[in-house]
Design goal:
Number of helices: 13
Distance between the termini: 22 Å
Structural class: alpha/beta
CATH class of the largest domain: Alpha Beta
Strand content: 15-25%
Largest sheet: 8 strands, parallel
Oligomer: single chain
Helix content: 25-40%
Order of helices and strands: EEEEEEHHEHEHEHEHEHHEHEHHHEHEEE
CATH topology of the largest domain: TIM Barrel
Length: about 400
C-alpha cells in the first residue's frame, strides 16, 4: 500500500471519538481509531477538534469595502428601499478601491476563518455591465487553490432595465454558474414575467437559480408560492433558492406553513443571514416542514451594512442567537446552517469529514461543534484539499504547506 501524503494523529473527530485522518491526493483516504498508516508528513493535533470546512452560502464579494477605507453607513431616506439602496451602492462603488483588492481582502479573511467554499452574487446590470463578473472570475482563478467560489449572476432589472436580460444571458455563457434575480414584484413589477426570464435562462444554460427576495408579508408569500410552482413545473426540484425570504418571518406561523409545504414539495431552499433589523425565516419550523435552510454572510462591510468579516461560525452563532437556539440539538442545527446544508445546496458531492471526501477541514480547540458555534475559537488550521491554507487565524495563501 502506498504511503499517505499526510497523517493527522490524535484528533477529535466530529462524532466526538478520538482517532486519526489520513490524506492522499487531496482527499481523505482513511479515518478512524488509532494511528493512520505510513505517511510522508505526520502531525499530532493534540486532541484538537476537526470539522468540515465552512461554507458561505451567500455573499457579495464584488460590492464589499473590506480592506478599503471606512465608510460611515448611509441610511435610506424613508425606511428600507431596494432602489434607493442600489443607488447608494452605485455611488460608493464609484469611489472605492479596485474590485480585485476589496474582494481579495475579503476572500483571504474568510479563508483564515475557515471558509473553504462560498457562493457569491455578482452585480449584472446596465450600470456595471459584465465588469464585476470579469473581476470576480479573476479573483476566483487567483484563489482557486484555497477556496472554491460559485458565482451567481445577479440580474438587477431584468424587466425594468432594458439590456440587463441580455447581459445576464452573456454572463451565464462566460462563467456565471447560477441564475440570479431580484424581487419580481416590488422591483420588477411583474412576478410572472420575471420568472419567465429567470427560469427561461436557467433552462437554456442548464443552470440552477438563486433569487433575492426581500418582498414582505402576504405579497412575499405569493411570490414564494409562484417560485415553488414554477420550480415543480420546470422539473428543477432541489436547484432553486429563495434568498432572504423575509415574508416567511413576517406572518404568523399558521399563515406561513402552507407556503413552507409548497417550498418543501418543490425542493426550494431558503437562505438566511438573520439580519439584525428585520424578521427572518423561522429556521426550525421550516426545517421541520422539510425545507432546506442554510446561511450566508450576505453583505459584508458594504453600502448595505457595516458588519462582518466573513466568519461563518460567527454567522451560525448569530442565526442561532436570534432564533433562540439553546439546546445541543438546536446548536447543531446552527452549525449545519454553515456546513452541510449550504454544501447540499451548492451541490458539493465530495464534502464532509469522511473517507473519499475532499480534505477541506478546520482544526480548532473545542470539544464539539456546539462549542465551536458558541465560542467561535480561532481556527488553528484550515485545510483545502489536504493543504494548510491558514493557521491561527492568519491567511497563508497558495504557498501554505501542510
Amino acid at each position: 500500500m502506498s504511503s499517505l501524503d499526510l497523517a493527522l494523529d490524535n484528533v477529535r473527530l466530529p462524532d466526538g471519538s478520538s482517532g486519526s485522518i489520513g490524506i492522499s491526493g487531496g482527499r481523505i483516504a482513511s479515518l478512524g481509531k488509532g494511528q493512520a498508516g505510513e505517511a510522508r508528513q505526520r502531525h499530532d493535533l493534540g486532541g484538537a477538534l476537526v470539522l468540515p470546512g465552512l461554507v458561505d452560502g451567500h455573499n457579495h464579494l464584488d460590492t464589499t469595502f473590506f480592506g478599503d477605507v471606512w465608510r460611515p453607513h448611509q441610511r435610506c431616506v424613508a425606511g428600507f428601499n431596494v432602489g434607493e439602496r442600489l443607488g447608494i451602492q452605485k455611488d460608493w462603488l464609484s469611489r472605492g478601491a479596485p474590485l480585485a483588492e476589496r474582494a481579495g481582502a475579503l476572500v483571504e479573511r474568510a479563508v483564515s476563518r475557515g471558509t473553504t467554499h462560498m457562493r457569491t452574487h455578482v452585480e449584472i446590470d446596465t450600470d456595471f455591465g459584465l465588469t464585476h463578473l470579469e473581476g470576480i472570475l479573476a479573483v476566483r482563478e487567483r484563489y482557486r487553490d484555497v477556496v472554491s467560489i460559485q458565482i451567481v449572476g445577479l440580474g438587477r432589472g431584468l424587466l425594468v432595465r432594458p439590456g440587463t436580460r441580455e447581459l445576464l444571458d452573456a454572463a451565464l455563457s462566460q462563467g456565471a454558474d447560477v441564475v440570479g434575480g431580484l424581487d419580481p414584484a416590488i422591483f420588477e413589477g411583474n412576478v410572472e414575467a420575471h420568472l419567465d426570464v429567470v427560469f427561461g435562462l436557467a433552462e437554456r444554460h442548464g443552470k440552477s437559480i438563486d433569487l433575492h427576495l426581500h418582498e414582505g408579508g402576504h405579497l412575499g408569500l405569493h411570490t414564494l408560492g409562484r417560485i415553488a410552482e414554477r420550480t415543480r413545473a420546470s422539473g428543477m426540484q432541489g436547484r432553486v433558492v429563495a434568498s432572504h425570504a423575509y415574508a416567511l418571518g413576517e406572518v404568523p406561523l399558521d399563515a406561513m406553513l402552507p407556503t413552507a409545504e409548497k417550498l418543501a414539495k418543490a425542493g426550494v431552499a431558503i437562505m438566511t443571514n438573520a439580519p439584525g433589523d428585520h424578521p427572518f425565516p423561522p429556521v426550525l419550523a421550516l426545517r421541520e416542514a422539510g425545507v432546506t435552510v442554510f446561511a450566508g454572510n450576505d453583505d459584508i462591510r458594504d453600502s448595505w451594512w457595516p458588519y462582518g468579516d466573513g466568519d461563518m461560525l460567527e454567522r451560525a452563532m448569530m442565526v442561532g442567537y436570534r432564533s433562540g437556539f439553546y439546546t445541543d440539538d438546536e446548536l447543531l442545527c446552527a452549525f449545519d446552517l454553515a456546513t452541510a446544508a449550504p454544501a447540499k445546496v451548492l451541490g458539493l458531492a465530495d464534502y464532509g469529514v469522511r473517507v473519499g471526501a475532499s480534505a477541506d477541514m478546520i482544526v480548532l480547540d473545542a470539544d464539539h461543534a456546539q462549542m465551536a458555534v458558541v465560542a467561535r475559537p480561532v481556527r488553528r488550521e484550515v485545510y483545502k484539499a489536504g493543504r494548510v491554507v491558514a493557521r491561527d487565524g492568519v491567511f497563508l495563501g497558495v504557498q501554505g504547506k501542510a
